[in-house]
Write a structure and sequence with these properties.
- The chain is built from 20 helices and 20 strands.
- By secondary structure, the protein is an alpha/beta fold.
- It folds into three domains: 199 residues, P-loop containing nucleotide triphosphate hydrolases (Rossmann fold, 3-Layer(aba) Sandwich), CATH 3.40.50; 84 residues, Helicase, Ruva Protein, domain 3 (Orthogonal Bundle), CATH 1.10.8; 183 residues, Ribosomal Protein S5, domain 2, CATH 3.30.230.10.
- The strands form six sheets. A seven-stranded mixed sheet has the order 12-13-11-10-14-17-18.
- α10 packs across α11, α14 packs across α16 and α16 packs across α19.
- The longest helix has 19 residues.
- The chain is globular and about 90 Å long.
- The C terminus is likely disordered.
Length: 523
């Protein structure tokens, strides 16, 4: 009974933090503490502006979705500091019983309040910023109970009288600011997703990681290890090598661990009497971090038959995918290796059928489809692969091996192909563009319907990449295959022929100039 009364006495029933938010101050703090993330910051400020004008307005809670280490939790903490409110973090990942959140009744053994009431007492006010993490890792019957509890928190009418089983009294949680975090959007239950407004927190580009390391990570880690800038310096080129060869992620969590490893080496030397300043250059990096962990995909410097560069989205960001194909005498079978899912297998079948329908324009002998087997291989065979974005790349390698025409080695591509050769929309264009930029690719082909997503690509990446939208597989053949003449339509209804080896001898200067003009306008 004494413990129960202490809980009732210690809860902040009417104690509140300031409700008036200085939005200009919020923007300054978010800009100072987080690099990039323009759209998430803008949406958060809009959300706070609406709450300032009408605090009782019911609306969807904000859900930050992005790969690990991209700053979702710290973004919610920065909002709390900007509002001058305490923040608390509640993890529901792996919660096996809704009682962990709602509490256990005093009539049962092990009675105690739930995580929500404990977080409220820790905050000390009844309107804190609550960060609920791991909502994409709910499963089974236990996950169903946790989801029902979260739905109650998100409902303005029921959150006013949230009842903890241990306390037995209703607690008003309607004034708390809720931020929900998840790593994978597809794993959030549909019933919960209806009540949320999703804000995607994308991965960082290489230049953004370098600025984050220089401005935030390195000063903090030096302080945490008892060092100063007089003890250790990491030039920009050294940081770039750490990003490229010792990390493989969309966020900066692994980057922080690698810099901490260097700090520990220097701290040990300092503690044993070494007073010199450690200026770690790129050639000396292996003495501190060991051999390189990751090596960029080895790209060929020459155009080859049956080798194309695809682009894939992974949890660690974008990645270059080298797709290889060989033809051999056989009966027309298509063999695939690389642990492919059903979606990718169907994409290969659709791409093969389209190439077969365009055999005359690609100058492929009809007997080739019956007399040769095609083996298509995806790298990293130990890693399962699936997703609708490899159809364009597969169609290109099939056309290349059957027509014996090489593929440009400086072109990477992404897109799904329909049975009629249309290039369909894909996701993760920003991450894929970052992967192409890191690999030194000059030209990136992407679906024309994804042009709306080009604005999400960082400016420095767009400056180094030639982004070419394509509407059909014929456009892909014309750009990436050598000596291919394929009719294609451009804006204005013109019909032109594209020849990657340049105009033929029979072309007039006038027709060549007109073609160059049209190609420039299309680009």
């Amino acid at each position: 009974m004494r413990a129960y009364l202490q809980w009732l006495w210690s809860l902040p029933w009417e104690r509140t933090a300031g409700e008036d938010a200085d939005l200009s101050g919020v923007e300054k703090i978010l800009e100072r503490e987080h690099l990039g993330l323009t759209k998430p910051k803008e949406r958060i400020v809009e959300y706070l502006a609406v709450r300032k004008l009408k605090s009782d307005l019911p609306g969807p809670a904000l859900c930050l979705v992005g790969p690990p280490g991209t700053g979702k939790t710290s973004l919610g903490a920065a909002v709390a500091r900007a509002l001058h409110r305490p923040h608390v973090r509640i993890s529901v990942s792996g919660t096996t019983d809704a009682g962990e959140l709602r509490g256990v009744s005093r009539t049962l053994p092990g009675a105690q309040p739930g995580k929500i009431v404990r977080a409220l007492r820790e905050a000390g006010v009844c309107n804190p910023v609550m960060i609920i993490d791991g909502i994409d890792r709910l499963s089974g019957e236990s996950g169903l109970g946790v989801m029902e509890l979260l739905l109650e928190l998100l409902d303005p009418e029921s959150s006013v009288s949230f009842t903890d089983h241990y306390l037995g009294f209703p607690v008003d949680l309607s004034r708390a600011v809720l931020f929900l975090c998840a790593n994978h959007l597809d794993l959030i239950p549909d019933a919960l997703l209806e009540r949320l407004e999703v804000i995607e927190v994308p991965g960082y580009s290489e230049d953004e990681k370098l600025q984050i390391a220089r401005r935030f990570l390195l000063p903090r880690l030096l302080h945490d290890h008892g060092l100063t800038i007089r003890d250790l310096s990491l030039p920009l080129e050294t940081l770039r090598n750490i990003v490229r060869h010792y990390t493989l992620e969309a966020g900066v969590r692994s980057l922080s661990r690698q810099i901490a490893t260097v700090c520990r080496k220097v701290a040990r030397a300092r503690a044993t009497g070494d007073t010199r300043r450690h200026a770690v250059r790129s050639p000396e990096l292996e003495r501190y971090l060991g051999h390189r962990i990751y090596a960029p995909e080895t790209l060929s410097k020459n155009d080859e038959v049956g080798v194309a560069l695809g682009l894939a989205w992974t949890a660690a960001g974008g990645e270059i995918l080298v797709v290889e194909a060989l033809k051999m005498p056989g009966s027309g079978r298509v063999v695939t290796t690389g642990q492919l899912g059903e979606v990718m297998k169907e994409s290969i079948q659709a791409a093969h059928s389209y190439v077969r329908s365009r055999a005359d324009l690609l100058e492929i002998e009809p007997e080739a489809f019956a007399n040769y087997d095609i083996h298509i291989h995806f790298p990293a065979a130990g890693v399962p692969k699936d997703g609708p974005s490899a159809g364009v790349t597969v169609g290109l390698v099939i056309a290349s091996v059957l027509s014996d025409r090489p593929i440009r080695h400086d072109v990477a591509m992404t897109g799904e192909v329909s049975l009629r050769g249309k290039v369909l929309i894909v996701g993760g264009l920003r991450e894929k563009a970052l992967a192409a930029y890191r690999a030194g690719i000059r030209t990136m082909l992407f679906p024309a319907v994804n042009e709306k997503d080009v604005g999400d690509i960082p400016d420095d990446v767009r400056a180094h990449l030639d982004l070419v939208p394509v509407e059909s597989m014929d456009d892909v053949f014309a750009i990436a295959l050598h000596r291919v003449i394929i009719p294609q339509r451009v804006a204005g209804g013109f019909i032109i022929e594209t020849d990657e080896d340049g105009p033929g001898e029979e072309e007039s200067e006038h027709s060549h100039g007109e073609r160059a003009s049209l190609k420039g306008r299309k680009k």
